[in-house]
Amino acid sequence: MLKIAILIWIILGATLAGSALTVVLATPALANQAMQLIPWAALAGFVLAIPISGLIAFRLSDRRVH
Questions:
Q1: What single-letter DSSP state applies at residue 66?
Q2: CB-based contact 45:18 (threshold 8 Å)
Q3: Which member of 10, 20, 34, 38 has the greatest number of CB atoms within 10 A?
Q4: pLDDT digits (tens, 9 = 90+) for 3-19
Q5: How many CB atoms lie within 10 A of CB 17?
């Protein structure tokens, strides 16, 4: 299950980080501080993906057993 979670985390983390970067760059109020916010947005996307990928991997492995 850990291997599946890591694979999902890589894909989901990149997706969520990219989405967060898009929000920072597309919002005019945030675009002024983009240089400070981009690393934090990317980090938040990858950190948020950890529990979500664990949940998805758990559900996938639960379905395979039954």
A1: -
A2: yes
A3: 20
A4: 999 999 999 999 999 99
A5: 20
Count of the separate structural domains present in the chain: 1
Q: Tokens in use for 47?
A: 């950190």
Q: Do 8 and 57 form a contact (C-beta atoms < 8 A)?
A: yes
Tell me what pLDDT residue 31 has: 84
pLDDT tens-digit series, residues 40-66? 999 999 999 999 999 999 998 877 655
Looking at residue 18, its amino acid is G
| Distance in angstroms (rounded) separating the CA atoms of residues 57 and 5 | 5
Domain membership of residue 29 as a residue range: 2-65
Answer whether 4's CB lies under 8 Å from 57's CB: yes
Global confidence as pTM: 0.83
